[in-house]
Design goal:
Layout (H helix, E strand, L loop, with lengths): L1 H22 L4 H9 L3 H10 L2 H14 L8 H17 L5 H13 L3 H33 L7 H30 L1 H12 L5 H16 L7 H28 L9 H12 L9 H14 L3 H30 L3 H11 L2
Helix pairs in contact: 1-13, 2-14, 3-11, 4-5, 4-11, 5-6, 5-14, 6-7, 6-15, 7-8, 7-10, 7-11, 7-12, 8-9, 9-10, 12-13, 13-14
């Protein structure tokens, strides 16, 4: 209990620190004015586009699940995504990333560890796709946006997080490949390491889950699936870019589509910080990107950030709660699912 309390206190301290840095220099009257200054029709289109990434993620997920079950229902993948993101928005620690595969495993009768392995692959390719798009942007910028000059501070931030992103994705990819292609040795080494800390009964459950997890990496054995998955990863992130491009257009901020890529990259970094609802990290990275990349006024950047973050949280959570109600579940019952399906 003390350890959990300490962890939650640290998370909320980080969140409060980012919020302070984000809003310490804004004029709240201007923030409100900018936040309300939207074009109604475009704004409604933006609202309709919020679940777009849940749809494209569900389509992409099928290519990872096909090695376990070929006829996974699209609705179940979409519902699991919506529930998982809702849980991550409500609770700290990104627990939705664990709930998401467990929900799908329960609904489709597949092994939880296998589905968990697909989530790790998904996150690796999310990072790699964002880094690839950033690299394409940096290479193509002189051709498509000759008049767009990166401020030194913005260039430093992009370069720093670009290197961190590439290093993280390569590291995770290497670990996954080692576990997949050197399965027995990797599991044996893991068992020896964990044997010192875990009781024998619990260790057996963990190792069984690890075997299922490695089975979830079968994706790496199929070149065709991998190429399709890479293509769909670009579809996912270009769809997310489209959502933000439409949002800023609704507020009269005309940013060329290709110039949205570094903004998406930086807000993706902020969203990865495990605070409830991405609060704090998203705000700081979004406001920083808007002011440094596009010269947007600090108060306008704050107003736009608050609105775009709020509509994503609200629409996703409403959708998640509707699906939970349909399934006869609550957020707290999901914890019981996790306890019964995972060691």
């Amino acid at each position: 209990m003390k350890k959990n309390g300490l962890r939650f206190a640290l998370i909320f301290l980080v969140m409060a620190g980012f919020l302070f840095l984000s809003f310490r220099q804004v004029n709240w009257a201007d923030v409100l004015r900018y936040g309300l200054d939207a074009k109604p029709v475009l704004f409604l289109i933006v609202l309709a586009c919020v679940p777009l990434h849940l749809v494209t993620r569900a389509v992409r997920w099928r290519y990872l699940l096909v090695h376990e079950k070929k006829d996974v229902r699209f609705y179940n993948m979409f519902a699991a995504n919506a529930i998982g993101f809702t849980v991550s928005f409500v609770f700290p620690g990104r627990v939705g990333e664990v709930v998401r595969p467990l929900v799908l495993a329960r609904k489709e009768g597949v092994r939880p560890g296998f589905v968990l392995g697909t989530i790790v692959v998904e996150r690796i390719f999310d990072i790699m796709t964002m880094c690839a798009l950033l690299g394409i942007f940096l290479l193509a910028r002189p051709l498509v946006a000759a008049g767009f000059q990166l401020k030194p501070e913005a260039a430093q931030i992009l370069n720093l997080w670009g290197v961190i992103g590439v290093a993280t994705s390569i590291g995770l990819m290497a670990i996954c490949l080692l576990f997949y292609f050197f399965r027995e040795k990797a599991v044996s080494l893991t068992a020896r390491l964990l044997k010192r800390f875990l009781p024998a009964r619990f260790l057996e459950k963990v190792l069984n889950l690890l075997h299922e997890f490695i089975d979830g990496l079968k994706f790496f054995h199929s070149l065709g699936n991998m190429l399709a998955y890479v293509g769909l990863s670009f579809v996912v992130w270009l769809g997310i870019t489209l959502f933000y491009w439409l949002f800023f257009a609704a507020y009269g901020v005309g940013i060329p589509f290709v110039l949205m890529i570094p903004y998406i990259f930086l807000t993706g970094v902020g969203a990865s910080i495990p605070t409830p609802g991405m609060v704090g990290g998203f705000e700081w990275f979004s406001i920083t990107a808007l002011t440094l990349l596009f010269g947007v006024d600090q108060s306008q950047a704050a107003g736009l950030t608050i609105v775009v973050h709020a509509i994503q949280l609200v629409v996703t959570c409403v959708l998640g709660y509707v699906i939970l109600a349909k399934e006869g579940l609550s957020l707290f019952q999901l914890k019981k699912i996790r306890e019964t399906m995972a060691p």
